Amino acid sequence: MRLKFLFYGNENVINNHPFTMKSGYTPNLANTAIENYIFVTKIKLRRIHLHKFKNNLTKSERMALQSLKQNKEIVIKKTDKNSSTVILDKKNYIKQALSQLNDGIHYEQIAISHCTEIYNLIESKVKILHEQSHIDDISLRYLLDTKVEKIQVGRLYLLP
Please, which domain of life does this record's source organism belong to (predicted)? Predict the structure, then answer.
């Protein structure tokens, strides 16, 4: 609301760039009517009593679920579309994972991560594109925002 008030009637049309970083800008207080409305709305929202969570499991079902969570011999996973949950024998799960990793076709074991090298290669290509005016300053900042220390190797996901 404060932003709408601040920019109301502004004829400058802002072009929404597809790679804009969030600015974190918070406008100053608006006029009295808007601030009063915001204040009263916050008070009314705080007065709304939300229903407390009601557990739909019996005590014995909750205990059984807790027991399953603590069992180190099983793996509990969501299915592919998160439509259900499956419980798998941990030894068989690891055996299946290793057989997929060791098939020699889809996966290859590497001694070290090449993430830094790949990041540096991408960074140099993006900078070249910027120098050749194929991408603008905003896109450059957006594409190179990630720090190389934050890059991680992907995670293996197995379908149950």
Answer: Eukaryota
